[in-house]
Structures are given as C-alpha cells and as structure tokens.
Amino acid sequence: MAKIVGLRCRECGAEYELQATHVCEMCFGPLDAVYDQAALKKVVSRSRIESGPKSMWRYRDLLPIEDSVNVVTLGEGFTPLVKADRLGAELGLRNLYLKNDSMNPTNSFKDRVVSVAISWARAHGFETIACASTGNLANAVAAYAARADLECFVFIPVDLEPAKVASISVFDPNVVAVRGNYDEVNRLCSQLVESTPWAFCNINIRPFYAEGSKTLTFETAEQLDWKLPDEIIIPIGSGCQFVRHRQAARELIEYGLVRGDRVPAFTGAQALGCSPVYNAFQSDTPDRVLPVKPDTIAKSIAIGNPSDGLYVNRIARETGGVVEAVSEEEIVEAMRLLARTEGIFTETAGGVTIGVLSKLAKAGRWKGDEVVVAYVTGHGLKTADVLTSVNGHANRVEIEPTMKSFREKVTI
Ligand SMILES: *Cc1c(COP(=O)(O)O)cnc(C)c1O
Ligand SMILES: [Zn+2]
Prior knowledge:
By secondary structure, this protein is an alpha/beta fold. Among the domains are: 1-43; 81-107 and 210-388, 3-Layer(aba) Sandwich (Rossmann fold).
C-alpha cells in the first residue's frame, strides 16, 4: 500500500499525481506531498520510532519514501540537542537548547533534504541529480550522488567560499560555476528543468526534498522527551525548511507523538545584507516579499528572491513568532559568542541564527523560563575565512621556544 498519494497545491488545493513537478498549473502555487494520514495513524508510534535507526530515517514513516525503497544514506540526522547553559546565562534564558546540525555527514542541515531527494529520484528512475546551490546543497548533493553512483551536476555562483568549493569538488561532480548570484543560478536551472531529464533537488523534485527538513523538528521534540519547545529560531534562505518545520510540529500533534497540542512560535533569522523576508515582515504587506540583491557573508542563506518567503511570514505571524535580522558584525560576534560559551563552531548562517537569538533576548522577548531552541544548521569550517578577515584574535602572543620568552610574554 502506498503512503504517498500525490501532490497538492498549497494555494488552491488542486491535486496532482505523484511526479517530479513542483508548481501548480492552475495558480503557480507550490506543491506539497500528500500522505495517507488515516493509514499512517495506525502505524506511527513513539516506540516504533525509538526502535528505528539512530539517524533521521527513524522517521521514515513520515517521509515520502515507500517502505520497499533502498534509501541513500550516510547516517544523517539524529544530531545532538545541546542544553546551552552558558549561552543561556548570558542571554537570560534558563531553558535554551541548540540543535547542532553541523554534525551531519557533510556538516550542514542539507544532508537531511538531500538524502530524501536522492532516495526518491533513484527510486523513480532518475540517473542524474542536479541542483542550484549557495554551497551547502551542492556539497550534500555531490556526496550523496557519489554514494548512490548517480551522475551529478551542481550549479554554484562563481564567488563561493574556497572551503565550500573544495568540499564539493572532492566528490568529483560536474561543477558549473555561474558568473552570477544564486538567484541567477536558480533561474538558469529552472529553465534547464524543461530541457533535461535530470532531478534538480530543489526545483522539480522539491516537494520530496523539502520533506526531509521535518526530521529536524521531529528529533528536537523526541530529544525534549516528546515535547515541543515554546519557540524555535530558524535561519531563512528560501524559507523551504521553515515551512516544513511548522508542518512537522502539526504532524507530531496529529499522530499523538507529543504531549499537548500547541505548535511552537516559529521565528525566522536573516542577514540584513539579504533580508527580503524580514523587510516584508516589517512592512504593512508581509505577503509581498520584494526581491533584493544579496550582499552578505552569510552566503549559504543569501537568496534574494526566496520562493517560500511569504509563507514564512504567514507562519511567523500565525504562531506568534517574528522575523528578525542582524548586521555583518553581529553575525561574526554571534559566531564567536557561540564558540566561546558552548564550544560549537558554526558557519555564518549559524551566526545569523545566534545573532537573532541574542538580539531578541536582549530586547526582552522572553521572561527566562521558556524552552527556546535555535537551529545551528552548518559548520564553522565552511566559512572560517570571515573570522580572519573581519578581525584578528586578541588573546594571541608569539614567543620563542624558551622558558624565558614564555615568562616574558605570557601572563598566567
Ligand atoms: C540552506 C541553508 C539554510 C536555509 O534553508 P532554506 O530551506 O533555504 O530556508 C540555512 N542554513 C544553512 C547552513 C543552509 O545551508
Ligand atoms: Zn494551485
């Protein structure tokens, strides 16, 4: 029996057969995967999940991959949820948690979505996997395509960070470096979908790709002993994962996996250097997300024309969350703050999330006992260059290899 029954338009509700497509022909709204909920209700349970693998695939019943499919996995997900007491003390939060998704196989959240997308594509006969990427997606796609023995084409902006380029190229995909920004790369790929038989993870097979995001919120609830937190802070690129996290919370409630029936407040984080969603959230017309030209060190979320932007604003408002943004200096400061207090080294996108968390905390958003979770979505080694270029490290001395030099130069 198939648990995925088709696709449905998020705007007009038009239904489609299961296929590699992501836009409604009637209204151009985005399409979402539709499950046989009644059938799932009979099988989904906490104990069934807890006896599953120690990866995001313990949530397989709630992912768009049928039971008979051999999944493409590198052990993604089930990343640590860390109670952040030292950072919490600085911010006046007694129940602050960090979901450390930099611990994934290619060191970002993207492994979740790509594992699902490539599993789906291979099961449906695709031989080539492709994507338009700001870096982390190409990294994950290249790794999982290698693992699955599939052809791979990744399209990236030409000015990507050197560390990201190296960690993509090592998997030997076909790399197309486009002289343009991400939005231009994405536009080109949207045209290529028509003329190639390829599965573009974030374009034609997006409805399945997006579903992988839910596991981040499923795991968070499980790791909080099957409770949803009061608020979740999420970095916004396209807004794709943000939308799926609310859906994940709804499913946890619907399937009786969590205590209570309250969806958390969902709060979005952007860099001021690329903040189309934040700009709209602050305006009188939050549904009108106007494109911007990105100019920020947070390149992995530098999307000037985010496809799910308006849904982010709707969900933030409906759940009592907000969308906030931080400056370039605040991003780097937050990366340092997180490292100094919790021993976690995150990339610039994580700096955006922690920057927004600390900005909101300082502005008095929370009383102190709320359970707040920040999603740390990528590893610091991906963007280590920003730490040397923005400002040096103050607690450093250089000495001769002698006791004398040590005594002279180092204060202990
Ligand atoms: C892609 C990405 C995001 C944003 O995800 P969207 O679904 O595009 O909003 C956040 N953080 C990191 C590290 C990413 O790579
Ligand atoms: Zn429609």
